[in-house]
Amino acid sequence: MQSFDVEVRGAGIVGKSLALSLAALGLDVALRGTPASASDDVRAYALSPSSIALLRRLRVWDTLAADAKTAVHDMVVHGDAAAGVLEFSAWQQCVAELAVITDAAALERALDAAIAAAPRVTRVDTDVAASLVAHCEGRAAATLAALGAMTTFERSDTGQRALAARIVASLPHRHVARQWFRSPDVVALLPFDRPERERSYALVWSLPRERADALLALDAATFERELAAAAGAEVGALSLASERAAWPLVVGSAAAWSGPGWVLVGDAAHVVHPLAGQGLNLGLADVAALTATVAGREPWRTPGDERLLRRYERQRAAPTWAMRQMTDGLLRLFAASSAPIRELRNNGMGLVNRVPPLKRWLTGRALDS
Ligand SMILES: Cc1cc2nc3c(=O)[nH]c(=O)nc-3n(C[C@H](O)[C@H](O)[C@H](O)COP(=O)(O)OP(=O)(O)OC[C@H]3O[C@@H](n4cnc5c(N)ncnc54)[C@H](O)[C@@H]3O)c2cc1C
């Protein structure tokens, strides 16, 4: 059996990025998993500047077509009353952009092309001998069962689904991302340039499972009417520009992320609610942290050294825990329908909006994940 330094199990965006990143250190990497299918994922990811910096170092970011990545300059979060509005801007934060909305399928394909050209990455379809197995199998994490008692994955079903689609609007997006917290729904319209430049959005609509299923079954015109009622008038008339797809919303985290010869990365280690658009950003931050840990190892340690991997786990535990608390807290806050809590949360949003240092701190957390 051919032996490798690392086997990366799972070829999603996190797995492929990790394979490229470790291979760039001079390690021989086996990547287990099939390339992305040709069918287009309707999602577009809000990527943070740190994620973009990683993809740029991997020579993937600059290969993406201009209309596959759209900068977000401003973000407006609407509560469920007029007082509840929070506005964030790149200008206030002194950064070029708050995030870049990136076409999911285009990113998968760009990573596949980089993998095909990487001399130290070999695609495999079976287990291989390796010092380290990096589990990047995502939230399904079927092979985690093989780790047996070494870790468990505490998972909780939110009872919601995230419905995604591409939308074209009658008014230009002006690079503004908008989100409406409408207890229990959360509607996000992320500015995008596909299929129509300056007028497209990637929709992510989180809502109770039964309502999501009902929306999926509607004809396009009725769906557009429901969406118009859920979103604000400031985006103009909205038309469906793709198929609709939905994902069950589970959240959770593994009890342990590493052990002798194995490590968990990305959604295999932690799954957060997409309302903050941070799941993939956390996974790519894991990739950067694990690569730096392996690169900085003492000469006598192998990449699968248990103590080495604990350093990675310790480094990533706090930011992941904080993001999980924030998204879970927001969900709980906006799930409550009683009038006093409703008033409190909307007034709270208005208050935060009037305190620029607090807003800068909040934005900083999202930019750093
Ligand atoms: C609607 C929606 C919108 C989102 N929007 C955002 C956003 O704006 N920003 C953001 O940062 N995040 C977002 N996320 C979260 C993001 O999608 C995930 O965090 C990210 O895709 C996780 O990547 P991953 O590579 O860890 O896992 P996955 O994407 O699940 O990839 C895992 C891969 O492993 C493969 N696999 C599984 N088992 C095996 C096995 N035994 N052997 C080999 N291969 C295997 C799978 O087929 C898959 O290809 C969103 C999620 C949803 C549902």
Report the sheet-strand fraction.
Answer: 25-35%
Name the shape in a single word: globular
- What level of helicity do the residues show? 25-40%
Number of helices: 10
**Ligand roster:** flavin-adenine dinucleotide
How can the largest sheet be summarized? Answer: 9 strands, mixed
Secondary structure blueprint with pairings:
Blueprint (H helix, E strand, L loop, with lengths): L2 E7 L3 H11 L5 E4 L11 E4 L1 H9 L11 E4 L1 E5 L6 E5 H4 L5 E5 H14 L3 E4 L4 E7 L17 E17 L6 E7 L2 E8 L7 E9 H9 L2 H11 L7 E3 L4 E10 L3 E2 L2 E3 L5 E2 L7 H17 L10 H30 L3 H15 L2 H13 L1
Helix pairs in contact: 1-4, 1-7, 7-8
Bound molecules: flavin-adenine dinucleotide (FAD).
What does this molecule look like?
The protein is of the alpha/beta class and 369 residues long. Helix content is 36%, strand content 29%. It contains 10 helices and 18 strands. The strands form 3 sheets. Strands 5, 6, 10, 11, 12, 13, 14, 15 and 18 form a 9-stranded mixed β-sheet that branches. The protein has a 6-stranded mixed β-sheet with strand order 8-2-1-9-17-16, with helices on one face. Helix 7 runs antiparallel to helix 8. It is globular. It starts with a strand and ends with a helix. The mean pLDDT is 88. The structure holds flavin-adenine dinucleotide. Flavin-adenine dinucleotide binds next to helix 1, strand 3, strand 10 and helix 7.
